[in-house]
Design goal:
Blueprint (H helix, E strand, L loop, with lengths): L1 E9 L10 E5 L6 E5 L7 E2 L12 E5 L5 E5 L9 E7 L2 E5 L4 E3 L5 E8 L4 E9 L2
Parallel strand pairs: 3-4
Antiparallel strand pairs: 1-2, 1-11, 3-5, 5-6, 6-9, 7-8, 7-10, 10-11
Length: about 130
């Protein structure tokens, strides 16, 4: 099972945990969880006016072995207005625009989507339960 917890944070809300959203999915091959502004396809959705988040920004996909990966889907713009980084323990790495990275099996961490133009971010905690 993959469990996701999302918080949308602006400078005024720093440190607040109200408004957190959660989603989970069994680790069945082909299972998908999405994050973005489009509430019709995304289980975790951000405010409509947060344009640094694409309609469908991140896609979590379960592979054939029950392992999960996350992809930063390319949106309608050639250059993104956000940065995405993955943190697992002491290790942090940027996720490239259009790139995919495997999530640690049985691990946890955080994915941070940072607005390049304002002090706003979307913080997504993940836990892969085996």
């Amino acid at each position: 099972m993959l469990e996701l917890t999302m918080a949308a944070v602006s400078a005024a809300d720093a440190g607040a945990t109200a408004g957190m959203l959660m989603a989970d999915s069994p680790s069945d091959p082909g299972a998908v969880l999405r994050l973005g502004r489009d509430k019709s396809v995304c289980r975790l959705s951000t405010p409509d006016d947060w344009l640094f988040i694409s309609r469908v920004h991140l896609e979590f996909l379960c592979g054939p072995e029950g392992t999960w990966q996350v992809t930063w889907l390319q949106g309608s713009q050639p250059d993104p207005s956000s940065e995405v980084r993955l943190t697992v323990g002491e290790y942090a790495q940027p996720l490239s625009y259009g790139g995919t990275v495997a999530l640690p099996r049985g691990g946890s961490g955080e994915i941070i989507i940072q607005d390049r133009t304002a002090p706003r971010s979307v913080n997504v905690g993940f836990y892969h339960e085996v």
